[in-house]
Design a protein that fits this description.
alpha+beta
């Protein structure tokens, strides 16, 4: 697949939006698939390999992002004109004065692929669905890496945070979509806060001095939930 081509210019003063293709290769996703299926049976590993091949054949990862000023008000943070009320997110973005909201999707062809498997091979459909989720997570990591590369010298991105994690209510998907506007990468949000295409991820990350981000930017460092899947799944 193509490399990420993030053209956004991130400065310390301007608010901006951009949509760009996301680089995603089968080998880098396979590393994550191996972590999930490598200790299982040879049959499940073979199914995961086949699923990954089918997914990378039809996926067209696209991302959109929007950068805004960030203000702190105790447990509340304000990104642009929108408020997020979450102690853990506020703590992770401590010392940051700008934030980026982004959305990445594998595209509608993945939904069609999963539906096809559900009609013809239900067990394999479960594997395809899971591997597609792993693939979307890798794409989200690649978006964050592409954004990190566009930061001014001396600035860094915190770990990415999504509604549904860190006690962040799912209904705040609406906040992120409001921030993204026309940079939502052709992803739609239902009134039940479900995204279409399904294999899409929204997230927010803070932008701040490297030393500050290194100290506060990973909420997992201060979380007591050691068995949380998000701790290992969300590497960046």
């Amino acid at each position: 697949m193509h490399a990420s081509v993030c053209s956004i210019q991130i400065s310390d003063s301007q608010s901006t939006r951009a949509v760009f293709p996301v680089g995603l290769s089968e080998p880098e996703v396979f590393v994550r698939v191996l972590e999930a299926y490598g200790h299982g049976s040879a049959r499940s590993m073979s199914q995961a390999r086949n699923a990954l091949s089918a997914i990378t054949d039809v996926a067209h990862p696209v991302a959109g992002c929007a950068v805004y000023p960030l203000q702190h008000h105790g447990r509340h943070i304000c990104i642009g004109t929108r408020t997020i009320d979450n102690t853990r997110i506020a703590g992770a973005l401590r010392g940051c004065h700008r934030a980026v909201a982004f959305c990445v999707t594998l595209g509608p062809a993945i939904d069609a692929l999963i539906a096809q498997y559900q009609k013809n091979a239900l067990h394999e459909a479960v594997v395809v669905d899971h591997v597609a989720s792993i693939t979307a997570d890798v794409a989200a990591d690649n978006v964050r890496a592409a954004l990190q590369d566009r930061l001014p010298s001396g600035r860094a991105l915190t770990k990415r945070y999504s509604p549904g994690h860190c006690d962040w209510p799912l209904h705040d998907q609406a906040v992120l979509f409001s921030l993204l506007g026309n940079a939502a990468a052709h992803v739609d949000l239902s009134d039940r806060f479900i995204m279409t295409p399904r294999k899409s991820i929204t997230a927010v990350a803070g932008i701040g001095p490297e030393e500050t981000v290194g100290r506060y930017g990973n909420a997992c460092d201060r979380c007591a939930h050691r068995g949380c899947a998000f701790r290992t799944a969300n590497r960046t």
